[in-house]
Specification:
Length: 334
């Protein structure tokens, strides 16, 4: 029986029945419940999740760390590669990018997340990064890939090279936007990317922005991140599709003894294979509980009680090495 099957089985039993099952010798349920009850964080009972804090390290990782589709969380790596090759300073708009015919045609799609742009329109790089990360424009991701590397295939190679350089050994990209289910990663790998890209002030500013004005007279598009501005959350990115389920990378700040600490979390593969509506509801519920719990609890207590891996349940992984030194400052895939 897998760890998540055990957790679901345990969660579905009423209190007295769970107790009876344990007393009757249901060792698997008892072992997993002991492991999870040792941690005060409300971990999801499916998929994967991980949380870490600047200056403290990993607060725990649950779920088998096998690569799963990540939908539009892919765009975090897209932004990282673009900014690495075209760095922007605070307040800089960067070079001007001209919209090509492909990006204009794709903006009429009704089956994916897009931003309405017209062929020949010109935008600053910073504006396009905002369209990429706030309303999660797939056509903008592909446009930036072509502009940066000449074609999307070359850009994807750079994405995979960047993942390898960061040590994201269980991550693979096959497209720049996340519509392709070949874009796969793990919660632990994505936190490596998150802590790296959050060092960039331009990236931090964009993912903390609640809305962006669309081209022309089309009004504003709000961020896909429903946690933004609540419970100290100041970013990062969402990704939802039927194959991938609900996925969220979040960044929040918590005051500890007068010092502001960065908290990063990843929740993946919630209700995979279900409708995007159900997947979003599940991932938001679990992410919100995790953020709230981190904000309420003393971090020292969270670190002391983080889940560790019982020998019989390797999918509950131990804290990442490095601790404080590792940290610094439908088919729609939005």
């Amino acid at each position: 029986m897998s760890v998540h099957a055990v957790l679901r089985r345990s969660a579905e039993l009423p209190g007295r029945a769970r107790l009876a099952a344990c007393r009757a010798g249901d060792a698997a349920v008892a072992a997993v419940r002991r492991a999870v009850s040792a941690a005060p964080l409300p971990w999801p009972h499916e998929g994967q999740a991980s949380v870490e804090v600047e200056g403290i390290g990993c607060l725990g990782t649950v779920g088998e760390q096998r690569p799963v589709p990540i939908a539009s969380l892919t765009k975090v790596m897209t932004a990282y590669v673009v900014l690495r090759e075209h760095p922007l300073g605070p307040g800089e708009s960067g070079p001007v990018v001209r919209v090509d015919g492909a990006a204009a045609r794709e903006s009429g799609s009704t089956i994916e997340s897009v931003v309405p742009v017209g062929e020949g329109q010109e935008f600053s790089l910073r504006q396009l990064l905002a369209y990429l990360l706030i309303p999660s424009g797939n056509n903008i991701a592909r446009l930036l890939a072509r502009w940066t590397a000449g074609c999307e295939a070359s850009f994807v190679r750079r994405m995979n090279e960047a993942a390898a350089e960061l040590g994201m050994a269980r991550t693979r990209f096959t497209s720049s936007c996340g519509m392709d289910t070949g874009n796969t990663s793990t919660a632990v790998d994505l936190l490596v990317l998150a802590r790296t890209v959050m060092r960039d002030e331009v990236f931090r500013t964009i993912v903390a922005t609640p809305s962006v004005r669309l081209p022309g007279d089309r009004g504003e598009a709000r961020t896909t991140n429903r946690l933004l501005g609540r419970h100290g959350v100041a970013g990062l990115k969402t990704g939802t599709s039927t194959p991938a389920g609900g996925n969220v990378l979040w960044a929040a700040y918590k005051d500890v003894d007068g010092s502001r600490r960065l908290v990063l979390g990843a929740v993946l593969a919630q209700r995979s294979g279900c409708s995007p509506v159900r997947a979003r509801a599940a991932v938001w519920a679990h992410s919100r509980r995790l953020v709230e719990a981190v904000q309420r609890a003393p971090l020292e207590e969270l670190a002391r009680l983080r889940p560790s891996a019982p020998a019989a349940h390797p999918s509950l992984t131990p804290p990442i090495p490095g601790g404080a030194a590792a940290l610094s400052g439908s088919g729609r895939a939005g």
